[in-house]
Design goal:
Elements (H helix, E strand, L loop, with lengths): L4 E5 L5 H14 L5 H20 L3 E8 L8 E9 L3 E4 L2 E3 L2 E10 L8 H15 L4 E4 L6 H6 L14
Parallel strand pairs: 6-7
Antiparallel strand pairs: 1-2, 2-3, 3-6, 4-5
């Protein structure tokens, strides 16, 4: 299936497309009311442009092999610096955390392996970059894919109301 799609790194000029994916992703999960969609998309675009330009966000976009101008999906990693912490009994984490986000495939392209290809690319990249930790927040629809790729439920907690 990987020969059907091409994946490339996102550039700051791709912020508009990634913001569209982000807004649609949250819309699909029922978390963005229609009246806030456009504002959310625009704010995301501006922040993504800045994060891409400064290396705080690394994104990948997928297109059909025969049509590189049509973006059918994307995903990325928001990089965070954290304090060093124990990683295991024998080592310390340097404080490099990656948060996967904006995993989105256009509806007509779903169930063709696009998201899996993007996530495998992210995992490969994160290992090469020696990130200490790679995390994500799973939607119900994406949970099975993430588990198949080796992600496990953690003990993270969040303050109520957020």
């Amino acid at each position: 299936m990987s020969d059907l799609f091409r994946i490339r790194l996102a550039r700051p000029a791709d912020a508009e497309t990634i913001a569209w994916h982000r807004a649609r992703m949250f819309q699909d999960m029922g978390e963005v009311p229609p009246k806030l969609f456009e504002t959310f998309r625009a704010k995301s675009r501006d922040r993504l442009h800045d994060a891409l330009a400064h290396g705080e966000y690394v994104g990948w976009l997928a297109s059909p092999e025969n049509d590189s101008n049509t973006i059918v999906g994307g995903a990325g990693v928001h990089l965070h610096r954290t304090l060093p912490h124990p990683l295991s009994r024998s080592g310390l984490a340097e404080g490099r955390l990656g948060v996967i986000g904006n995993v989105f495939t256009e509806p007509e392209w779903r169930r063709r392996g696009v998201a899996e290809m993007l996530l495998r690319r992210i995992i490969e990249w994160a290992r090469a970059e020696r990130l200490d930790r790679l995390v994500l927040h799973a939607s119900e629809e994406g949970r099975a894919l993430y588990e198949r790729l080796g992600f496990v439920t953690s003990n993270e907690m969040r303050l109520a109301g957020d």
